[in-house]
Amino acid sequence: MNQNENKTGRKVRLNRGFTLVEMMAVVVIIGLLAAVIAPKFFTQVDKAKVTRAKTDIKKLEQAIQLYRMETGQFPEKTRDLVKEPDEVRGWNGPYLEKELKDPWQNKYELTVPGNDGRPYEIICLGSDGKEGGDGAARDIKSWSEEGDEE
């Protein structure tokens, strides 16, 4: 009796591993699952970044209001909230621990005066770092209507 045969004389497979076809089937299934799950995952990541940008803008607004209460004027740039600017009386900051960057590692833009007669405007340029855009690339502004941002 040969080592590759059992007691009945039938040949037995010695290697009990997976065949190439079985491995390819597993790879295809994993690829299909990744194709379905990945877009949903990245959409959630983008939503989280937009939410963080909105929260940062609220922090900046609070710091700007405190700066104005103490100095009687609005800061010219976000750096003025962290480091005392020249020739500004009443500065008791820092009003922020450090200058904030948006979730895409760009600086928030502060415009004084702001648009539409507003005293200031804070803008996050979104994921593309450029004005305009859709989805995660959409600009997030301090004075935006809630419905405009969704």
Q: How many distinct folded domains?
A: 1
Q: Spell out the helices and strands N to C.
A: HEEEH
| Inertia-based shape | rod-shaped
Helix proportion: 25-40%
CATH class: Alpha Beta
Could you report the average pLDDT, rounded to the nearest whole number? 85
Strand order of the largest sheet: 1-2-3
Question: Which helices and strands appear, and what pairs or packs with what?
Answer:
Elements: H1 20-71, E1 109-111, E2 121-124, E3 140-141, H2 146-149
Antiparallel strand pairs: 1-2, 2-3
3D structure, described in words:
There is one protein chain. The chain is mostly helical and 150 residues long. It has a single domain (20-141), classed as Glycoprotein, Type 4 Pilin. Helices cover 37% and strands 6% of the residues. The protein has helices spanning 20-71, 146-149; strands at 109-111, 121-124, 140-141.
Task: Describe the structure concisely for a colleague.
By secondary structure, the chain is mainly alpha-helical. The protein has helices at residues 20-71, 146-149; strands at residues 109-111, 121-124, 140-141. It has a single domain (20-141), classed as Glycoprotein, Type 4 Pilin (2-Layer Sandwich), CATH 3.30.700.
